[in-house]
Amino acid sequence: MKTRPRLTVETSPIPLTFKWKIIFFQFFASALNVTIQGYPQGLQTNLLAPPYNFTNFQYGIFYGIPSFPNIILPIFVGMYIDKHGFSLYMVICLEALVILGISIVALGSCYVSYSIMVIGQFLMGIGSENIQLLIKRFVLKLSSKEDSLKIWGINLVSLRVGTLLSSTMGPLIYSWTENVSDCFYFEIFIAIAVCICFNLSYLFSFRAGILDPLPNKENNDDETSLVENESMIDGLKRFFKQTDRIFWLVILLISTNFIMIYGLFSEVNNLIMKASNISSLEASYFLVFYSILAGFFQVLDGFVFARLGYYIYTMIIGCFFQIISSFLFIGSFLMNNEYSAFLPLGFFAFGYSLSSTFVFSSIAFIVDRKFYGVAYGVVQCAMDFGATFGSTIFGFIKDISLSVMEGYFWPLIETATFQTLNLILALSILILDAFTLKVLSKKRQVILEIQSTPSPHA
User: Fold this and answer.
1) What is the pLDDT of residue 434?
2) Would you place residue 149 in the very low, low, confident or very high pLDDT band (cuts 50, 70, 90)?
3) Largest Cα–Cα distance in the chain?
4) Choosing a second label site near 175 at 20 to 30 A (CA), which of 146, 218, 262, 301?
5) 334: Cβ contacts below 8 Å, ≥ 6 apart
6) Smallest Cα–Cα separation from 298: which of 155, 426, 445?
7) What pTM does this model have?
8) Rounded to the nearest 5 degrees, what angle is found at the Cα of 66, between the Cα atoms of 238 and 399?
9) DSSP category for residue 396
């Protein structure tokens, strides 16, 4: 008889002086890493105009291509971490890909070469997305029973800070230089800052004794490593076999949720410009409002809602708010008022923060912690699947419907459709959870009490 996944927070013997230094540098590494992932969004208007003349479909590919190689790759990166720990060689290779990729994008922007810029984005994505996976695994390493929600909350706030910076940095640099290439060259310095912050967090983690810098050294932590001498493929097969089916329904929900999120946010700066008749820089100020509001809700979620439990209900409520936000965006076009985008952004901020809480809080309670690396690798793959196709689908629909509401009516209907699908999947998870694990709809304290009890449905 199988048992339920064990309690998912790890004991953290790290001295406080090291712990908060690690968290500090990880916060900025995560925020700046998200900044470079979303950086093109603030320059969309410039990329659609001469001399670049991207179509909306081309822009969607350019924005989404960093996620394409990571539809599969993070699974194997996660398996590698589970089996060998954190490898210094792997970290260096990923960081080199980030800097190389962004440098190629900047070079391509100088020569107005779309193909070169896409190649650069592709390489950057391999490094950047997997660095973000390492940061998630760092968070689990740092977490203890007492402060796991606090550390997750800080990590999620860093994502909102990254969203704020990605929305504002491009338009701000362009307002100073009036040169798109200079904006991409500035992105190289952001990438270097990511590497510095991540390396410092890695250094303090090594000094605190929680990381092994050598890839082939034996990992003696039986609770966080796979079976000794087991190949990655065999370990992956065992993961698929032992993971409850509710995990895969959650993964499907994450995929559809991120198709919606990345589709909308690949165009959000331009959407606000058109709806409110303002400049790109002024539109970025709306996104500052969004990021601050989402950050506040993220802290509220991490310190209040996530402590309560009832994780699937937070997702259901979040879906309702996201559906409403899509129709409010359509309404903002009809109002044609410079402040009309505030309300839909507020609804979306609250809905998105709730869905993020569900994703990062619930996964750890439905997967055995020895599979953390591969489980969060699968989560990253689902997110990257959504990121790859979300912006492309949004851009394609916009290109073929430019005559209606400047091309945004049908893409927003597509967004609302995926949000409705998310709601249906969340309700399905609620029903399935009631008959299987019985954890996602319970209070957090109840979840902790039943984690080690046998599951008659497993």
Assistant:
1) 82
2) low
3) 65
4) 262
5) none
6) 155
7) 0.75
8) 120
9) H
* Residue type at position 309: G
Angle (nearest 5°) at CA 268 between 267 and 270: 70
Cβ atoms of residues 412 and 402 within 8 Å? no
Residue given tokens 């990257």 in the structure block:
384
State CA 144 to chain mean position distance: 23
Q: What confidence tens digit (pLDDT) does each residue in 92-144 have?
A: 899 999 999 999 999 999 999 999 999 999 999 999 988 887 887 777 677 65
Asked if the peptide bond before residue 51 counts as cis, ω within 30 degrees of 0, the response is: yes
Residues 76-95 pLDDT 10s:
777 777 666 667 788 889 99
Confidence band for 274, pLDDT divided at 50, 70 and 90: confident
Q: How far apart are CA 257 and CA 341, in angstroms?
A: 21
What are 85's two structure tokens?
A: 């720990």
The structural domains of the chain, ordered by start, are 16-213+232-449 (1.20.1250.20)
Q: How far apart are CA 116 and CA 52, in angstroms?
A: 12
> Rounded to an integer, what distance in angstroms lies between the CA atom of residue 56 and that of residue 399?
6
Predicted confidence band of residue 203 (pLDDT cuts 50, 70, 90): confident
Q: What percent of the chain has pLDDT over 70?
A: 79
Q: Prior bond to 69 cis, omega within 30?
A: no
> Which secondary structure element, helix H or strand E, spans residue 66, and what is its range?
none
What is the secondary structure of 180-213 as a DSSP string?
Answer: HHHHHHHHHHHHHHHHHHHHHHHHHHHHTT----
SS3 250: helix
Cα separation, 96 vs 297, in Å, equals 34
First to last CA, the chain: 7
- The token duo for 333 is 């076009």
Residues 101 and 123: beta-carbon distance below 8 Å: yes
Which segment, 177-186, 303-312, 381-390, is predicted with the most confidence on average?
A: 177-186
The dihedral formed by the CA atoms of 419, 354, 6 and 237, expressed in degrees to the nearest 10: 30
**E strand or H helix at 74, and its extent?**
helix 73-84
Structure tokens at 252: 């499907």
Question: What's the pLDDT at 238?
Answer: 79
3-state secondary structure of 456: coil
Burial of 428 (0-12, 13-18, 19+ CB in 10 A): middle
Q: Which of 423, 415, 440, 430 is nearest to 320 (CA)?
A: 423
The per-residue pLDDT for 306 is: 61
φ, ψ dihedrals at 387, nearest 5° = -65, -40
Q: Where are the alpha helices (DSSP H) in 301-441?
A: 306-308, 311-335, 342-366, 372-399, 409-435
Residue 406 tokens read as 């400047």
